[in-house]
Write a structure and sequence with these properties.
It contains four helices and 16 strands. By secondary structure, it is α+β, with helices and mostly antiparallel strands. A hairpin with a 2-residue loop joins strand 11 and strand 12.
Length: about 300
């Protein structure tokens, strides 16, 4: 029986080994067999608890351009000249730490946009955006972020990434609590939007949001302001998704939050109170110094009088 499991933490491997050694005197199995059984059971449990796209999401458009594969562990969206595709979460969430792994459209992806975002509905909706703007082969993707509160957006920040997002899966995370919204890539914070309601700035905290994603053609603006058009000879364009994790999130249903009975403000849910510590602030500054390519707060042409108040 195989005993290797890439998702099992080293400290748990140690505890498994100690347990196996301790129980060997009364066990009819060899140490390696017993350890293998325990690890296998742990891996099976972890796999079963991972987000399954059949259970968590609905395909919303694009017909067979959106595909569920590997028993719901993998989802792909495709774009061709006729249509793009998209999906949305079955659940609505009001606060949470939510992860999704994406592998973006490879090669010449100019003109395409892979959008992964959280949104409520209506003219005064809230929204938290990751948008990946395609580019010519060899040029970097642009990661476009935005935050809407009470229907007001215009808070764009854009970044290059420090890796090729088309070669492998990478984890894109939103930690959303009453204190701040934190955007992270592979655990590295890239942006924080703080709750500054004391300054009269609305903060998304009352409207539950669904998770949406889509792959679509935006060659009128996405690549160099629309100068580079989509090369349809490269179609279909495909983005892939896996390892969705909303286990640390508050599901909203029938006007109530699943966290109301979980005491989310307690120490058992540290993400509910999480703010950047000094180490994370240093990593955030590193990203913004080296990889940020646009920040609405410093756009004096757009805001000639003064930047928006949250920029202070």
């Amino acid at each position: 029986m195989p005993t290797k499991c890439s998702i099992i933490p080293p400290q748990l491997k140690y505890h498994f080994q100690v347990s196996v050694t301790y129980s060997m005197a009364s066990s009819p199995f060899s140490s390696s067999s017993l350890l293998g059984l325990v690890v296998y059971m742990f891996c099976s449990l972890m796999a079963a608890s991972a987000g399954n796209f059949y259970q968590e999401f609905d395909i919303t458009w694009g017909n067979d351009r959106a595909k569920l594969l590997d028993k719901g562990q993998l989802l792909t969206l495709s774009l061709d000249r006729a249509s793009g595709s998209g999906f949305k979460s079955k659940n609505e969430y009001l606060f949470g730490k939510i992860d999704m792994q994406l592998k973006l459209v490879p090669g010449n992806s100019a003109g395409t946009v892979t959008a992964y975002y959280f949104s409520s509905l209506g003219s005064t909706h809230d929204e938290i955006d990751f948008e990946f703007l395609g580019n010519l082969s060899g040029d970097p993707y642009i990661l476009h972020t935005n935050v809407f509160s009470q229907g007001k957006g215009n808070r764009e920040q854009q970044f290059y990434l420090w890796f090729d997002p088309t070669a492998n899966f990478h984890t894109y995370s939103v930690l959303w609590n009453p204190h701040n919204i934190l955007f992270s890539v592979d655990g590295t914070p890239i942006r924080v939007f703080k709750n500054l309601e004391a300054m009269g700035i609305p903060f998304p905290k009352k409207q539950p949001m669904r998770i949406y994603s889509s792959l679509w053609n935006a060659d009128d603006w996405a690549t160099r302001g629309g100068l580079v058009k989509t090369d349809w000879s490269q179609a279909p364009f495909t983005a892939s998704y896996r390892n969705f994790d909303a286990s640390n999130a508050c599901v909203w249903s029938s006007g109530a939050s699943s966290c109301s009975s979980k005491s989310p403000s307690s120490s058992n849910s540290p993400w509910m109170k999480h703010e950047l510590d000094s180490t994370s602030q240093a990593r955030l500054r590193w990203v913004q110094k080296n990889y940020m390519i646009y920040n609405y707060c410093t756009d004096t042409k757009r805001f000639p009088q003064s930047p928006p108040p949250e920029c202070a």
